């Protein structure tokens, strides 16, 4: 008892720090807020702990996509910064890194983690491509008959394929939603900075600057960026100015 920090914890003295301007600064603020606590923090009390330590509100949605899985699912996507665990039915969070690391060390760890994820995603994509190629090119002139142990009844095969398709469709939809929400965040940041619509040619650059990952519509089973964006009229609007194609936030009435 007493080692977990909830909403009512008052032990920490609030320090003052500036609002994070980018994802690296925000991750550092999360880390320092967690290591400043006397122990693991209840998930529901994370924002309060952040405020107590930094003296300003925790606007996590500015830097990380918070989807249907809520804050816990979002934090699980940065396991190199935050450890999420459940104890006695209560969800807690704590710093994943040592308390004595400095900001540069955390930035390097974040880069290492992102490189690792990118490598895994590339390997997975390559494997999927190889599997599809093999399936599309059976040995010429022969139709291999499965052995008794390999044979699959048509109904079982159809059911398996349907289940796999449903699972893949759900994953693609989730990736698409995360991708468009990432674009929305880019546009919101531009709006706060007093900038106008974003030229399509600059979208990939600004997306990567904010999220530190490439903007890749192929993850959402799309091949054309403009076509992908136009599927989300409640989120963004694609406009034309002369020969330049731009994207901006959807009008307020559509949000």
Describe this protein's structure.
There is one protein chain. The protein is mostly helical. It contains 7 helices and 6 strands; from the N terminus they run αβααββααβααββ. The protein has a 3-stranded antiparallel sheet with strand order 1-3-2. It has a 3-stranded antiparallel sheet with strand order 4-6-5. Helix 1 (23-35) packs across helix 2 (46-54) and helix 1 packs across helix 4 (103-136). The longest helix has 39 residues, at 154-192.
Largest sheet descriptor: 3 strands, antiparallel
What share of the residues lie within helices? 40-55%
Query: Which overall shape is indicated by the principal axes computed on the Cα atoms?
Result: globular
Strand content: 5-15%
Order of helices and strands: HEHHEEHHEHHEE
Summarize model confidence as the mean pLDDT.
81
Q: Can you tell me the residue ranges where pLDDT is under 50 for at least 5 consecutive residues?
A: 5-13, 147-159
Kindly provide the radius of gyration, computed on alpha-carbon positions and rounded to a whole number of angstroms: 23 Å
Cα distance, first to last residue? 45 Å
